[in-house]
Amino acid sequence: MKKIIAPLLMILIIISCGRLNENENWIRVNQLGYLPNSIKVAVFGSKVSLSIKEFEVIDADNNEVIFTSEEVKHFGEYGPFKTTFRLDFTGFNSEGEFYISADGIRSQKFKISNTIYDGTADYLLNYMRQQRCGFNPFLKDSCHTDDGFIIYHPTLDSTHINVTGGWHDASDYLQYVTTSANAVYQMLFAYEQNPESFSDEFDAAGLEGSNGIPDILDEAKWGLDWLVKMNPKKDFIFNQIADDRDHQGFRLPNEDSISYGKGLERPVYFCTGEPQGVFKHQYRADGIASTAAKYASSFTLGSKLLKDFYPEFSEQLKQKADDAYNFGKENPGVCQTAPCRAPYFYEEDNYVDDMELAAIQLFEQTGENKYISDAAHFGTKEPVTPWMGADTANHYQWYPFVNLGHYKLAVNVEGQNHKKFIEFLRRGIDSVYQRGKDNPFNFGVPFIWCSNNLVAAMLTQCRLYSQLTGDDKYSEMEAALRDWLFGCNPWGTSMIVGLPENGDFPEDSHSAFSHLYNYQVYGGLVDGPVYTSIFNRLIGLQIYNGDEYEQFQSDIAVYHDDWGDYSTNEPTMDGTASLTYYFSALEKLGKESNLTYSHGALIRGDSTKQNIFLVFTGGDFANGYPEIKSALDQNSIKASFFFTGDFYRNPDFTNLIEELKSDGNYLGAHSDKHLLYADWDNRDSTLVNKIEFENDLIANYREMEKFGINKDDAEFFLPPFEWYNKNISNWTNQLGFHLINFTPGTISHKDYTIPSMSNYSSSDEIYKNILAY
């Protein structure tokens, strides 16, 4: 035995000490790139046993080594690799283009920049527009204009109803309320949380050209218009259009010729709460709440965010939301999608998460406590979305894959309930974390069908949890899941078509657009890898163009960039929409990287620039105004003035306000009645409820509007007494505003003091302290 083992050991030593074979060793990175201050980890995978002690970051422009690290963690065997390592270069934060090198093995190039995610959320909308049914802006033609005829209604079977619109679900042309309503909500939520990340380059029809409305709201409105058609009146809702008879060959949607027995009309499935399926297979419906609640949450948030653009439509959505929610309460249970010839359908088995989200959205809209009680009731029934921590699940068994109701409840409640729903979020994240912490990709998501949708869901939950708590325990896992989507995975490919432009991304996806006409489905998130055991038993799969990732397939999971693999390489509309929040959050994070925040409020501008912003507040008095105006005029500078509603409505200050506005100064809000929002001694104790806060702030802006100052002119809000907490910050963000406060350390806020006060600081002392700071 010794004579056999010794030579083998010598060979291994020689391999690990010399340059490694590029056909047996790979370094995976996020090909899109990294924010300078983000966690940055590459993964080294090898087909042989070896040891890596250090690695280098090399400037891609001149091939110079600019960073060397020994932050290497060994993980052993995983998937196709016999040996794996995590190479941590988080400590390197210079901007530029680079690659990683370890023992002669080079990664692909990547960038480090604060702008790396700029425009990525908008980029996803390319796929959403391409999936439009009715008028399709990509094809500049219309499809499915005859939809459709009603089925499963007790008296209206075969009756025509106009339900043209919405999006095709994936590369087939079926349309489901369950995925479409979720896509609508995800996009609305993304805009609600990060409005500054979205641009206006397309009109409502999806054609190039600005229309004064952010593109993501145009896209959400397209979906809402269709949902209204699918829910034309109270207690009368549909669940899907067409079925898998659609799966009879590839063709573009405007060339669809599949017949369902009534020309080009397609069947529209009426929600009955009972099993449906026109051929061999049926679903297990036992209620309607899962569908009705999705209508309700999308209608409610749509009503809020479209109010300024479509006021009449907003009012219509408000009433329809309440009707749909009550219909769901009256019909508890799930309403799955209907199969037909094949056994595949969306097997949603939970509905309490949908009811929870609908209820908390209605609370945010109305302030009625009955809704928050309902939300807490439903939310407690399912603390953790069941796929989290599970090894497997049926197709779309627990959907949506993220529970945004938990997040909204945590934002809207206090005390033990606040802690409870944050803990629910943490438990879900921790379940995935525990499954993935011992593999090199920190990947704990099960490789079920549409695994990338689960990745998007977990990224959303991680980011929201981190924002709520400041807990960074799961930050490395979040970064790993983010990087997974951009190529830091065993296959070394991005999972989003077209991102990054010069990277490795799906080019032969399961889509008629790309397969028949070579029209790339840019922005689409593909299904992602599946368990090899799932792949091997699916019906109708075939690899047509060879397996370019053959050496990276394993007994664990497979992924194929081939149009014949509908299980791993088909883009999905709802998965794509679900990423808009996370990408918009990363873009916002990049823009804020040089800014300083405290309890959610901006307290210092870009620290790399030598700028001072002068801020003045007013509530009852304005006796310093002549001196302030004189100083501003003499130095030709502008300042920011934050006034209460009482100040704006005081006729003695009308000329002052108009003069400041005419001079080009910033005029903002300082609350309506100068209420104290948080306890002085216990900052976490909020002294107003959400409705009181919103009414106070909205009243302030109502007075500003009388001077021609609308919300778009005054997005920053400075809290009364310059005192606030995280609740106030969250509530401000939800209204579409940004909380701002003075910079601590300057003592500029002490200008209110007079000599008789124990904390008095003179004007000269304040001035010198500002300059020193």
* Count, helices: 21
Distance between the termini: 73 Å
| Rg over C-alpha atoms, rounded to the nearest angstrom | 28 Å
Major β-sheet, in short? 5 strands, antiparallel
* Portion in strands: 5-15%
Helix proportion? 25-40%
Written account of the structure:
This protein is an alpha+beta fold and 773 residues long. It contains 21 helices and 24 strands. Strands 3, 4, 7, 8 and 9 form a five-stranded antiparallel β-sheet that branches. Strands 1-2-6-5 form a four-stranded antiparallel β-sheet, with no helix packed on it. Strand 18 (596-598) and strand 19 (601-604) form a beta hairpin. Helix 11 packs parallel to helix 15 (573-591). It is globular, with a radius of gyration of 28 Å. Mean pLDDT is 92; it is low at 1-17.
Brief overview, please?
The chain is of the alpha+beta class and about 775 residues long.
Itemize the secondary structure elements and their pairings.
Blueprint: H1 2-17, E1 25-28, E2 41-46, E3 55-59, E4 65-69, E5 72-74, E6 83-88, E7 96-102, E8 105-106, E9 110-112, H2 120-130, E10 134-136, E11 141-143, E12 149-151, E13 175-176, H3 177-193, H4 215-230, E14 238-241, E15 267-270, H5 289-305, H6 311-330, H7 352-366, H8 369-381, H9 404-412, H10 415-436, H11 451-469, H12 475-485, H13 512-517, E16 530-531, H14 532-537, E17 557-558, H15 573-591, E18 596-598, E19 601-604, E20 615-618, H16 625-635, E21 640-643, H17 645-649, H18 654-662, E22 666-669, H19 690-705, E23 716-717, H20 726-734, E24 738-739, H21 763-772
Parallel strand pairs: 12-15, 20-21, 21-22, 23-24
Antiparallel strand pairs: 1-2, 2-6, 3-4, 3-7, 5-6, 7-8, 7-9, 10-11, 13-14, 14-15, 16-17, 18-19
Helix pairs in contact: 2-15, 3-4, 3-5, 3-15, 4-5, 5-6, 5-7, 6-7, 7-8, 7-9, 8-9, 9-10, 9-11, 10-11, 11-12, 11-15
